[in-house]
UniProtKB/TrEMBL annotation:
It comes from the Bacteria. Keywords: Signal. This is Peptidase dimerization domain-containing protein. Pfam families: M20_dimer (PF07687). Residues 224-299 form the Peptidase M20 dimerisation domain. Residues 1-28 form the signal peptide. InterPro entries: Bact_exopeptidase_dim_dom, Peptidase_M20/M20A_hydrolases, Peptidase_M20_dimer.
Length: 555
């Protein structure tokens, strides 16, 4: 009996082992490599990326010149996918029902690593690069007043350098590039997740413009958000001849806003909300039969965001009752509060330390300091670090926020709750600026941006190589994801199964300005840089600011 039991136990053990081996393993096709060989390949990556600086500069400048708002990034997507297709990537267009969204895949087998960055720009942020005061290329037009023109060029530079090594060294793995469409509206990434584009991904590296080279892990202190538009409908009438026959949808919008603004007195400190009125009627002598108000509702957790959403719906219903109108609402976008992966961030930070900050020229610092003077930048940042020109000291590995009163949102967070994710910040912008503003475009097609993108591409390429040849990185990343990040918090989408991407957003604005903007699209066949094409002397500053910028300490 004892022998039979022992045999049975061994048989069960073998069966369990075979069952385990049969399960799909994250990054199972990875190969290992000696430390010396890995170090040599990283140096080769850095050298190759330096050789590609001209191509990188052209990509950064070209996307800057397009200046396309969310969901309307037609030229940008056509240009970037064209480069990737020429380099052997397989392109899938129009993913998740978004015409300007795509994936570009190259390689074979596991691991599958996603590499993304945003591509949309900011309304009314048109600005000549290298000019340290307001000087739009096209007055009133959109522009890259955050710097989203630089992230995908960084990714493409890094991946093309890595691709050469993967081919030669026969390193298995699949690279998938993808764009953050309409990030300013938080309009696409939750739909990518919902529609399965990340279900087989082993890890994700995202890149975002900043003023230093850095990476974080854990909860970064930002808010999640739901973007919702309330549409009121009433009855038109002559505003003077028969106003009693009208039911004003605009009155309903204004009453909702009044109610919400009184509600602010009772909101928690972590909550943020802001709105615009995209439709307030047509003309004063017609009672508006239709009007709408668009809200962003932000908080630190999913339940609290949903509570704000419910409160807003009550306000809308109350306003409709008071005005005898009807109301419907539509979700235009969403984002969870983010949480980034610790093992991946630690790996990235070691490569960041290897790469270091770019060497800024005296001209770079003059432009930065003159812009800071122009914009009355604070003397210190939120971590009490001095703001004086471009960063000269490398950022630290940022740990989770112990306490946060909330802030901005980014829909990369939705991906971070579905696959281990990090965000690489790279130094292409000027410290101390307001954000979402024309001044943030000043550096974004200048040597500052070009150098920052090159530095970021090196850190990213090195980290991707680590992830491809060191299986323990992804194993640890998934252990953190499963045992720490998602142990007590489970992702529940803020969008429903029937919500659709708001792909018509910004159509009118781009239709108005694109014909004028096309005249200024960058022509790299004729001009070395976009600065040269625009006839800008680098840097251009106010005469009074030049002496201040230099006297602040030069490099």
């Amino acid at each position: 009996m004892k022998k039979n039991f022992t045999f049975f136990r061994r048989l069960v053990g073998v069966g369990c082992l075979l069952g385990t081996l049969a399960l799909p393993q994250r990054g199972a096709a990875q190969t290992t490599m000696s430390p010396a060989k890995l170090e040599a390949l990283k140096k080769e990556l850095a050298t190759e990326i330096d050789k590609q600086q001209k191509a990188t500069q052209q990509m950064v400048d070209m996307v800057f010149s397009f200046g396309e708002l969310g969901f309307q990034e037609v030229e940008t997507s056509r240009y970037l996918t064209g480069i990737l297709k020429k380099n052997g990537f397989t392109i899938e267009q129009g993913i998740a029902g978004v015409p300007t969204a795509w994936t570009a895949k190259w390689g074979s087998g596991k691991p599958l690593i996603a590499i993304g960055s945003d591509i949309d720009c900011i309304p009314k942020a048109s600005q000549k690069p290298g000019v340290a005061y307001h000087d739009p290329i096209v007055a009133g037009a959109p522009g890259h007043g955050e710097g989203h023109n630089s992230g995908e060029p960084l990714n493409i530079t890094a991946v093309l350098a890595l691709k050469k090594i993967m081919e030669r060294e026969k390193i298995p793995g699949t690279l998938m590039l993808w764009p953050g469409v309409a990030e300013e509206q938080l309009g696409a990434k939750a739909f990518y997740v919902r529609d399965g584009y990340f279900k087989d991904v082993d890890a994700c590296i995202f890149t975002h413009v900043a003023d230093n080279l850095g990476v974080s892990y854990g909860d970064g202190g930002g808010n999640g958000m739901i973007s919702v538009k309330f549409n009121f409908e009433g009855q038109a009438a002559h505003s003077a001849g028969a106003p009693w026959r009208g039911r004003s949808a605009l009155d309903a919008v204004e009453l909702m806003d009044i109610g919400w603004n009184f509600h602010r007195e009772h909101m928690e400190v972590t909550q943020r909300s802001h709105y615009v009125i995209p439709d307030g009627g047509d003309q004063p002598n017609v009672v508006p039969s239709k009007a709408s108000v668009w809200y962003y509702l932000r908080d630190r957790t999913y339940p609290k965001i949903m509570q704000m959403y419910a409160d807003a719906q009550k306000m809308a219903e109350g306003a409709a009752l008071m005005t005898n109108t009807t109301v419907t609402h539509e979700v235009l976008g969403s984002a969870w509060p983010g949480h980034m992966n610790k093992p991946m961030a630690e790996t990235m930070y070691q490569n960041i330390r290897t790469v270091g900050l770019p060497t800024w020229s005296a001209d770079d610092q003059v432009l930065a300091r003159a812009t800071q003077v122009e914009m009355k930048a604070p003397k210190t940042d939120r971590r009490n670090k001095p703001i004086d020109g471009l960063a000269m000291k490398l950022d630290t590995l940022n740990k989770p926020e112990e306490f946060s009163i909330g802030g901005g949102s980014d829909d990369i967070a939705d991906i971070s709750w579905n696959v281990p994710t990090i965000v690489l910040r790279y130094p292409s912008n000027i410290p101390g600026l307001p954000g979402h503003h024309w001044s943030n475009a000043i550096s974004m097609a200048t040597p500052i941006a070009h150098k920052g993108v090159t530095a970021g591409a090196k850190a990213e390429a090195m980290t991707l190589l680590d992830m491809l040849v060191k299986p323990e990185i992804l194993k640890e990343a998934w252990a953190y994801f499963n045992e720490v990040q998602t142990k007590n918090t489970k992702y529940t989408p803020l969008i429903s199964k029937t919500d659709k991407p708001a792909i018509t957003l910004n159509e009118r604005i781009m239709a108005e300005y694109r014909p004028q903007m096309k005249k200024y699209y960058y022509n790299p066949a004729k001009y070395k840089t976009y600065l040269e094409q625009l006839g800008i002397k680098y840097p251009t500053v106010r005469p009074a600011d030049a002496s201040k910028a230099v006297s602040s300490g030069g490099e």
